[in-house]
Amino acid sequence: MSSMGDLTTLYDYFEQQLARLPLQARLTLVLDPPDLLRLGEAVELEDRSWTVFRYDGNDLAFRKAYAGHGPDTAHLVWVTRPPGRFSGLSPNLDLSFLVDVIRRADAILDLSLLGVLKALKPRETWPPEAVARFEPFLAAHLGAVVAAHADLRRNLGHGVPLDTHCLRALVLHALHPAIPVGDLAFRDPDPRHVLTRYLRLLVEEEWDEEGLTLLQEQALLAPGPPVQDLALWFQAPPVGLVRYLYLRRLLAPRRVANIAAIVRGMLPFDPRPLEPWVDAGLRLWDQDPAWRDSLIVRAERALDEADLDESLALLGADLPDDLFAALAGAETPAVAYGLGRRLLARVTDAESLGRLALTWASRRPPLAAWPETPYSHRARDLAGFLDELAFLFARLAWEPGPELAEGAGLPPGLAGLVDWYVGLRLYDLEYAGARADEALRRLPGLTQTLRPLLDQVRATARAYLDHLDRELARRFRDNWRAYLGHPRLSINVLRDTIIKPRQPVSREMCVWIVVFDGMRYDSWERVVKPRLLERYSLDWERAYLSLLPSWTGVARTGLLSGKPPEAWRSYRGRVTLNQEMLAARLFGLSEAERRRRLRFYSGMESDRTQRQLDPRQRLPYNVLVFNVSDDNLHALRGDLVALNATVNSLLDGILETLDRLVQPDDTLVVTSDHGFVELEPDQSVTIHDDTRWQRFVEGGPHPVHYRFIRGVERPEALADEEALTFEYPDLRDGTFTVAVGRRWFARAGTRHPARYTHGGLSLAEMVVPGAVLRPIGAPLVRLTLEGFPRILTVQESEEAVIQFALASSGNRPAHFALEVTIDAAHENAPLRQEGDLGPGQRLPISYRFTPIYADAPGEVGTERITVQVTYTDAAGKRLRLSRSAAITVAPRTDLVKFSLGGLDQLDDL
């Protein structure tokens, strides 16, 4: 019996047998009736070479070739059946003309498949007809067939002879080794199990034409009670069968009648005979997620947009409520995309677009739980578009009116306004609009009608932010000195993070102060912080306001000096803008200590600067300035999505640099000097040159910048609400006029201004983060639910709102699927939401429902609300968070209810 170690094909078995012959052997007869070995002119082994002479019934040709062999040369005679039409005359080989060769042969090797199988498994009885039928498959996969034989025999049991069905199972296993041969035997007396097994194999595996034919034949001829209706399942074209199951699952929940009849036109066969067994066939959808995903992928791979539209039309959902009901129950990317597209195609104005987006947010299907199909990216684009719109409309639900200019309804104080701006994610309004626009560009057929409406929404968001900026300017005008001394001014970032907490600082416990030049708060929250939190834990964070003007020369100097401009003094008491010296003085370092204890590098993104920095040199204080936006602002012409993509790409190198520098016991302080705004063409104010601008007249720098004017008196043409003027007396050219809100200054003749800039008075330019982070070790994905109540008391029939948050407390991004459900049989639809939550991020959730009070026997009232969140941890384990709250419904006293119980008994009177 041959060793199975290296046996793969029949040829491998042949080489093994040949190699075992004695070295003295010179002539070997090889019997290969069906010509499966496909030998050439010679067979090369490690220890010798065999010349090949073929005998296929043509004795004359054989003798002519064979006469020339040397008597001492190792050779073999390869015997096959005659070629062509003569090969089928007899299944046996005619060796009568080879008697002389047989007598002289040192060995005769039977390489017929039946002979090989008997040699490899001598105790098994192999069916000759079945072996002959599957010879090519068996020869090509001999090793796999023999290896699977033991499993097949265990599945069959002792005493059960092998038949064609068994051989076909072995061949199928050889073609698909990942499928256990027992699953391919189809030896199940229950027809439903045979159908289920066939559908599982058909959908989860890729089959070529030959393999598919064998699989269909195997199921059709499976042992067990014959069912004619079941046989039709195994004869149906696989692509059509998959589509039928897909459509059946789509339409059944909507209680569409006569499904088989109405989908007949979309299939290459009549599905009506399949209906009696369809429930058994679709049982896998709920029981086997992997099978369900495979079926969805196969179905949507063959589904073009016309087919999709035709399929969704069968739902009979024409009204928005019906479409949303179908969307809430969607189970595949194509259905979610198609229904969402139908809803968006009906939108005619911004108000209806807002209602649609907010409704979508409460009925969003769980895209993350679905497989990747040709429609997945379209579904994600559509979901992204509606997600961003839902956020925009939720934040803009309060339409800003004229009273906003006086601060009505806004938190008091600068800190209150900043925290409110950050807490409600108002910093994200512009970026959300850009993300919505990017998603819309990838939605064919919707861009032309929806872009004008999206532009309206984005314009409203900009106007809203402009009102807030004007309110911020008003608070500065009311008390300029209070602004310069306010604890939330960015000059306090280093004091709050290092000095006040008495942060231990030494060569063993270094502090790394990383300033991201020009990083806006949306870039911080959505791009930079999530990437940092993959490596660092967040110990502390607060939002600050930068020093005006929000221009690097002033804002960063104030940040690093920890003082307003009037206190920017050198060691000798002179006014200085040397940021390194000012930082050293803030940390209490003497002039002698400054070089030994403080390292200061600006332009860290430069390769030259990187080479100058020696990671082996450990200093207690380290200031590293990275340009993530500032140097790119004037060159970038793309939108905020493109700009933040650039920031994200720059982070790759920045994080690698920090990895080399920051050690486990070090502390990382991250902040920014300022943000930026986009220059809108209709918001410019032209500032003409003035002959009184002495320094400019004498060849000095021009005083007019896009967002501020420096060193000259305020131009008379500027209204109070457009600009704010102030002075830093100790600074040369210390008079500044900064633009407020969306306004910007153009010099006479300006034609092609930069798209983005900074230096003015706006929350986008001035709100900057201050954060303390520490290096972490193992990756961690962890989500928590915050603020979900245990008990809830509500009023009957009055809409109630439950608010809580989903927070990420790990150091890796988490993809989640969330569902909020409420008991009782009423119209409150569940809330489903899925998405990505970066490290340290927090997602507010609101769920609205109308409670029911049960005051009669048998009535079902509202008693409990539940939230479930599923996500995968860093080890790949699927986790579930679940919270539940008991609901007490207070009855309304203004309602009079009548009980109709007992009316069914009136007929008995």
What does the secondary structure layout of this molecule look like, with pairings?
Layout: H1 10-19, E1 27-31, E2 42-44, E3 49-55, H2 59-66, E4 75-79, H3 99-104, E5 107-110, H4 113-120, H5 128-133, H6 135-140, H7 142-156, H8 164-175, H9 181-184, H10 191-204, H11 209-220, H12 228-235, H13 238-251, H14 259-262, H15 278-287, H16 289-301, H17 305-313, H18 320-328, H19 333-345, H20 350-363, H21 376-395, H22 413-423, H23 429-441, H24 447-478, H25 480-484, H26 493-499, E6 511-517, H27 521-532, E7 536-545, H28 552-561, H29 579-586, H30 591-597, E8 598-601, H31 607-612, E9 621-627, H32 630-633, H33 640-661, E10 667-672, E11 677-678, E12 684-687, H34 694-697, E13 708-710, E14 723-727, E15 735-739, E16 744-747, E17 756-757, H35 763-766, E18 767-775, E19 783-786, E20 791-795, E21 800-808, E22 814-822, E23 831-837, E24 842-849, E25 864-872, E26 878-890
Parallel strand pairs: 1-4, 1-5, 3-4, 6-9, 6-10, 8-9, 12-16, 20-26
Antiparallel strand pairs: 2-3, 7-18, 10-18, 11-17, 13-15, 14-15, 19-21, 21-24, 22-23, 22-25, 25-26
Helix pairs in contact: 7-8, 8-11, 10-11, 10-15, 11-12, 13-16, 17-19, 18-19, 19-21, 20-21, 21-23, 23-24, 27-33, 28-29
